[in-house]
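hiii so um. not sure if this is the right channel but i have a protein structure encoded as tokens and i wanna go backwards to a sequence. like what aa goes where. can anyone help
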């Protein structure tokens, strides 16, 4: 089998690559525009704006994976501590011809999995104890193949940076507003304008970045499902895992779901027991769409066989 995706045997996805490049371009452009506008409007505060922008971006790039791991309670485990999990990852990495990432377990009853890492050298794949208790070996391999696909396509790093840029733009806007008001002082016309314009810019930046990252997130989940199904040759096992995980999430206490909800863009399935107000705000495509795609892949594999 020839290598297809960045030196691995995961199926390539030009649509995903195009969307990642487009998302980073537009969010980066938006970020630069916001910083430039703040530098012009808040001339006395421009050093604060630039230092904060550069410092936070570097910190996020280098530590985003650690922040996500800590936030989701991931604990790296050895083969002795989790032999079945390590064994599944070993088999899939050999099948995909890719380096083995770090393996972790999150001690929570929420059945889920995620991957982090800005590159393959520091990538991590994590499964929750709730997932390990509920899935059969073939189902677990399907989920892990899905997560390893994120690592192979490097969309985990893109999602992390893209999500951060929108938040960072809002932070810079608020800090710039604070610095500008201190410089201007008083309740003059400039202060009044800043108090109206800067929060408005912050809201627009956040809304645009949220929509862009949500659109990318939904597509990358479909791409990972497809790549995992083709790699393992068992789309039915992944479909079974999806159905089981989604059904079990509805039975998890609301408090536990709320703790996992901030990291929904990274989870295998969204940690929600209710529907969002709009599909535009969802981090994952509908379950029916994911199952329909896996069904079509199973049919195609059956015809090829």
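sure thing!! here u go:
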């Amino acid at each position: 089998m020839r290598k297809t995706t960045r030196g691995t045997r995961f199926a390539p996805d030009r649509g995903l690559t195009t969307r990642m490049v487009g998302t980073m371009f537009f969010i980066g452009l938006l970020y630069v525009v916001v910083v430039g506008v703040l530098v012009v409007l808040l001339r006395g505060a421009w050093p604060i704006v630039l230092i904060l922008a550069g410092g936070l971006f570097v910190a996020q790039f280098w530590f985003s994976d650690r922040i996500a791991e800590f936030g989701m309670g991931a604990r790296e485990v050895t083969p002795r501590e989790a032999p079945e999990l390590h064994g599944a990852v070993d088999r899939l990495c050999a099948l995909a011809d890719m380096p083995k990432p770090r393996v972790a377990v999150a001690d929570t009853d929420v059945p889920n999995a995620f991957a982090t890492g800005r590159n393959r050298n520091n990538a991590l794949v994590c499964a929750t104890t709730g997932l390990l208790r509920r899935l059969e070996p073939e189902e677990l391999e399907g989920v892990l193949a899905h997560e390893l696909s994120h690592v192979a396509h490097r969309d985990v790093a893109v999602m992390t940076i893209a999500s951060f840029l929108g938040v960072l733009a809002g932070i810079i806007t608020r800090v710039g507003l604070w610095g500008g008001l201190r410089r201007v002082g008083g309740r003059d016309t400039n202060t009044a304008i800043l108090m109206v314009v800067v929060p408005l810019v912050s809201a627009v930046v956040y809304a645009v970045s949220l929509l862009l990252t949500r659109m990318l997130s939904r597509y990358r989940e479909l791409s990972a499902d497809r790549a995992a199904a083709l790699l393992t040759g068992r789309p039915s096992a992944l479909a079974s895992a999806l159905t089981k995980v989604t059904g079990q999430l509805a039975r998890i206490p609301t408090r536990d779901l709320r703790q996992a909800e901030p990291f929904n863009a990274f989870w295998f399935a969204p940690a929600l027991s209710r529907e969002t107000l709009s599909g535009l705000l969802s981090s994952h495509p509908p379950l029916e769409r994911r199952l329909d795609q896996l069904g079509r892949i199973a049919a195609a594999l059956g015809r090829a066989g």
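oh and The radius of gyration is 21 Å.
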